[in-house]
Amino acid sequence: MIRTSLSILKFVVFSFSIAAAQQTSLPCFNVRDFGAGGNGKKLDSPAINKAIEACALSGGGTVLFPSGTYVSGSIHLKSNVHLYLDAGSVVLGAPQETNAYDPPEPFEGKAYQDGGHTYFHNSLIWGEDLANVSITGPGMINGGGLTRQDKEVGAGSIGLGDKAIALKRCHHVLIRDVTVFHGGHFAIILTGCYNVAVDNVTIDTDRDGINIDCCQSVTVSNSRINAPNDDALCPKSSFALGKRVITENVTITNCQVSGYEEGTLLDGTFKPSKNKNGRIKFGTESNGGFRNIVISNCTVRDCRGIALEEVDGGILENVAISNITMMDVGDYPIYITLGRRNRGPDSLTLGSVRNITISHLIATVADSMSGVHITGLPGNDVENVRLQDIRITFKGGGTKEDALRVPPELDRGYPEPKRIGITPGYGLFARHVRGLELADVHFDFQLPELRPAMVCVDVDGLQIENFKAKIAGGVVPAIFESVNNLVVRNSPVLDGVTTK
Description:
By secondary structure, the protein is mostly beta strands. Helix content is 10%, strand content 45%. The protein has helices at residues 2-25, 45-57, 115-118, 400-404, 417-420, and strands at 28-30, 39-43, 61-65, 68-72, 75-76, 81-85, 89-93, 125-128, 131-136, 140-142, 163-168, 171-176, 179-181, 186-191, 194-199, 202-204, 208-213, 216-221, 224-226, 233-236, 247-253, 256-258, 280-282, 289-301, 306-310, 315-329, 334-338, 352-366, 372-375, 382-396, 428-447, 454-465, 468-469, 478-489.
């Protein structure tokens, strides 16, 4: 037994020795050897790019950033190059007045997407049409002089250094362990990429955290993303590649999103912000759509909840969301919508939203404007949505006037709940839905709430099992209008409720 254990130990040590030898045998290019000062004053991006070029010409390897602060304009990634940011190293975005960022590249045809999705070269770190790219290490990327402004220059271009990491049409990509602070318009934007892993990344920024646009086979795991003024983790499907491209086969797991004031995730003070954005959101750009997406084991704090928005003619299907906890939720905990903004060359095709499961979700202190919000369009239903084991406590405070309100149809507008306004049901508002299942759903509130717990309009195939809700005295628990094929089981709170 002892000999066997010693043999196993010797094998493990031998294996680690081989791995270490292989690691040290890889070509390593220290940016300081190419003239980078790392003193926080000198512009180091020319030296950094020389190191990357030399690494690529040698067949690939590691470009090392030792401890220090490297003021940089645009850094040009290459295939088979691994950027390693050592502990204590900071890549700091140069001030705009240094003109150290690449100009935006030409874009052929009409841009149907925001400037941030149209141009990529005007970034701190960017790569295009690359393979085997990695950015890892315990160091930091500080956007510094990056802008988050929506300044229009040309056909939808922001025209300035405005993204921390931008990758377009790249494959076999790894981003791990790094911290991104103040990432500009996008801290990380992936467009048309496949076989991507983002792991153990911390982002604290004032606009978008991670955008996964027109990508396939992507995993985002074990990461913390704080984005008070925009979306934290955002699958998209824009027209940036000049055609419809679906975003599919995406896994998001063990992540935290929040909307604290910028910088307070990193310093641990966690100060609430006024905007409380920071959500997980599909869209709004959704020309190709979304398919086969899994989101699991995530926390949502001091921001909006989870939004699934298909408004540009694509499909949104086969989405499974589970094991989510939320606290201090702004605007809504769950928002699923189909619209007809059709921001693209095809202004007629309507999209579709179907086959969505959300389970094991707990939300506390949720805003009362909109609870669970599921809306299609007249004649174009959201299909096959199942909510299971959902428990939400709302702030409350809805009035009798709110209960009588008929929210406008989303139609062609921007798909935000604030455009629709307060919903007549404090817990759930469903309209134009076919195939809606509620199992083990429980709604509660803190302040007096004079709205029903649930309002369903134009719903075909509504099945409710073990529904519980707090109801104020004299308030009907639910309103069912133009609801067909209604089945209610083990839900005493709904006894006596009939359809109109």
